[in-house]
Amino acid sequence: MGYKAIIIYGDPEYYKRFGFKVSKDYNITNGDKKYTVALLVLELFTNALNGIEGIFDEGKIYEVNKNELKDFDKQFIKKEKGYSKTQDRFNELLGKYI
After folding, report:
1. What is the span of the domain harbouring residue 43?
2. Helix H or strand E segment including 67
3. pTM (2 decimals)?
4. Cβ atoms < 10 Å from Cβ of 67
5. How far apart are CA 93 and CA 45, in angstroms?
6. CB of 77 closer than 8 Å to CB of 53
């Protein structure tokens, strides 16, 4: 399909076992032009990203209208909201920069 790499947000301690590296190693920043430790890159073949740098743009897919979200959530049985320890760790990592 021609893809050179996979870029994700995740816990580097977990994803490094699969070969992911921090985005700073490839000069790829987040949308705020910062290197967060949670932005990870996996080259799909050797030297796939040589000479490439840039900004990881998530696009508009994560932009949510809060009113539409509330209406959507009304369709489901009400559950107690909470976060797991892994979600807390991920939120912590998003705020850490290299």
Report:
1. 5-94
2. helix 66-73
3. 0.75
4. 8
5. 27
6. no
CA pair distance 64, 57, nearest whole angstrom:
16
Which tokens belong to 52?
A: 């490439």
State how many domains the chain has: 1
Pairing status of strand 28-29 against strand 54-55: parallel
Indicate the residue type of 41. V
The pLDDT of residue 25 is 95
The label of the residue with tokens 């190693």 reads 25
Query: pLDDT of 38-92, one tens digit each?
Result: 999 999 999 999 999 999 998 888 788 999 999 998 999 988 877 678 888 888 8
> Tokens 């050797």 correspond to what residue?
46
Contact in structure between 95 and 9 (CB atoms under 8 Å): no
